[in-house]
Amino acid sequence: MKRLYFTIILFFIALKTMGQILEGQFSDIDKIIISKTGWYTTTDVSITCANFENYNFPCYISTSPKVIRKFCKIISKLEANNSNVYPDYRCKIYMFRKDTLINSICVDRANVLIDGFNFKTSKRLITELDKIKDRVYNFNSNNYFIEDYPGGQDAIYSTKEKELEKSKISLSNLNLIIIVSIDREGNTINLQFKNKNNDSVIPESLKSTLNDIFYNRIKWNKNSQRPSIYRIALRIGRR
Predict the structure, then answer these.
(1) Hey, what long-range contacts does 64-69 have (CB within 8 A, 24 or more apart)?
(2) How far is CA 13 from the centre of its chain?
(3) Please, what is the angle between helix 65-76 and helix 2-25, to 10°?
(4) Smallest Cα–Cα separation from 164: which of 197, 201, 156?
(5) Would the N or C end of the chain have less CB density within 10 A of its end CB?
(6) Tens digits of pLDDT across the chain (239 residues)
(7) Torsion angles phi and psi, residue 146, rounded to 5
(8) What is the pTM of this model?
(9) Which residues pair with 120 in a beta bridge?
(10) CA-based max dimension of the chain
(11) d(CA 91, CA 105)
């Protein structure tokens, strides 16, 4: 009982400390730019914080000290999200101090990603983000984008398909989605397979070949801002 009580106390201390860190970190923000789409927009694959810029969503800006203070206060009071997180973001917030980007935050209806930490999205945060409607057209978010793979999305598809061809595997009958987990050093650390043809079994030989390609032959870009649990989805076969 004492151990449980002590654990609960430590948990609330950790939450308070994180809130203080976030509030201090964001205290002198003077501009926020929000790139977002509809919260219920559907996409073929999940949108991660690292590949968000590929989608060129509309951007909105606020330089109002009142709006920014309120936004930062909401962020600092978010609760930690300790459940399993499968990122599929619909909003990315770029935070500036004197035209220098100091941080970015990704938001979906369930989760907020800040510095690799996951927090629960609040209704208040969604409401405040939706209030910012001053459109900006000259913001190029790709200036702040680190590609997951050298050469970008087309290059990873090309590399993957060439490696499969070397292994004498035909792509014509494949219709898979692979969920790839990547660490900050650019290593594949886990693979999950989803067969789009639900009536078909994925051959073990194909799984073995794909494991060899992604674990041993493909190297991703390093990214110190990549969260500790980071996944991307790739199609194998028909696209």
Answers:
(1) 65/30, 67/128, 67/131, 67/132, 68/29, 68/30, 68/31, 68/32
(2) 27
(3) 160
(4) 156
(5) N
(6) 555 554 444 444 444 444 444 555 566 889 999 999 999 998 877 888 877 888 889 999 999 999 999 998 999 899 998 887 778 899 999 988 888 777 889 999 999 988 778 899 999 999 999 999 999 988 877 666 656 777 666 677 778 778 777 777 666 666 778 888 888 888 999 998 877 665 567 778 888 888 998 899 888 888 766 666 677 777 776 55
(7) -105, 115
(8) 0.58
(9) 111
(10) 61
(11) 8
In this structure, what DSSP letter does residue 204 have? H
- Residue with token string 């991703």: 220
Contact 62, 68 (CB under 8 A): yes
DSSP sequence for 71-82: HHHHHHTPPB--
